[in-house]
Amino acid sequence: MSTRYNAQALKEFASTLFASTGIASDRADTMAEVFLEADLMGFTTHGLNRVASNLQWLQSGVSRLAGEPHVLLDRGNILNWDAEFLPGPWVVSQAIDEALARVEQFGVVSITIRRSQHIACLAAYLPKILERNCVGILTCSTPAERTVAPQGSKTPLFSANPIAFGAPAGDYPLLFDISMSATAGGYVARAEREGKKLPHLYLKDSEGNPSDDPAAFANGGSILPVGGMDHGYKGAALSAMLEVLSMGLGGYGRADDVAQDDEANSVFLQVIDPQAFGDAQHFLRQTEALTALWSSCESDGDGEVRVPGKRAWGLRRQQLQQGVSLYPLIEGDLKALARTYGVPFPQPIG
């Protein structure tokens, strides 16, 4: 049985690390909560795994310790913010709070954010929206990043461009967080660090040949779009759509001088109140039926048919009750941070 840690203790540990940089304690708490949420649901490449990079950004000044986002536009149900390199997990959490405060009045609230420091796991922001019985859509792109090559090209153009979606649906929500690349950069980096090949040919080398070797990406290659070598035009089209929503509507991206932006994100988020369209129970009846029918589909193999959200939500419930099982590399990295910063690492609970 793997070692488990109390979720609240892990959150307090990460928050203490962030607060050591001089950032306000409430902002440190918010950042820690976002990273913990990712691990609770099993999105381990973009959860507590990102504590170290965020600490470095806060210490170096790449992330601003204080200040508020610059409001470029506010039309009630549509807002455009310039985060000016505030910590991504904090500024996106603020945007979601703002959207939830307005959604009862407007029904649908959409917010774009430019120059937000890296926002990590998009799914981590969904529980707060779902707890209000609302639908959440989040996507982001990275103007300074070019890692994904369009189909038929060996020149990387897009960033990974993830999208997360959550909708209430009974015992568990319909929920997913997927990149428009065949695999996320975090998995490529993890495989390289562990000296492993990727499970499939998710990459191209610098000559455009398919590869499963992380070294191919590190040496000038690219990640394939969703759809791979055969149907990658679909992933490329979706990548373009998400860059339009985030960079285009936000008014900052590929057309600008972004060389110094590093991992800073352009963000699009939308919160929808189903009650704005009619009786919320009618909405829930439909989403419950969808997930039930999906789950009852006959498997074409030995495994259970996978309904997006069921596994993540079940894992979240389990880990909140029984403790969090950390990915081994993450556990080691956090213990190293504990030694470096003199912050006690939580004791295991089992």
From TrEMBL:
Key word Oxidoreductase present: yes
InterPro entries: Mal/L-sulf/L-lact_DH-like_ah, Mal/L-sulf/L-lact_DH-like_NADP, Mal/L-sulfo/L-lacto_DH-like_sf, Malate/L-lactate_DH-like
Protein origin, superkingdom: Bacteria
Keywords: Oxidoreductase
Secreted found in the keyword field: no
GO molecular function per UniProt: oxidoreductase activity
Pfam families: Ldh_2 (PF02615)
PANTHER family: MALATE DEHYDROGENASE, OXIDOREDUCTASE-RELATED
Family: Belongs to the LDH2/MDH2 oxidoreductase family.
Protein name: Lactate dehydrogenase
Originating organism: Microbulbifer agarilyticus
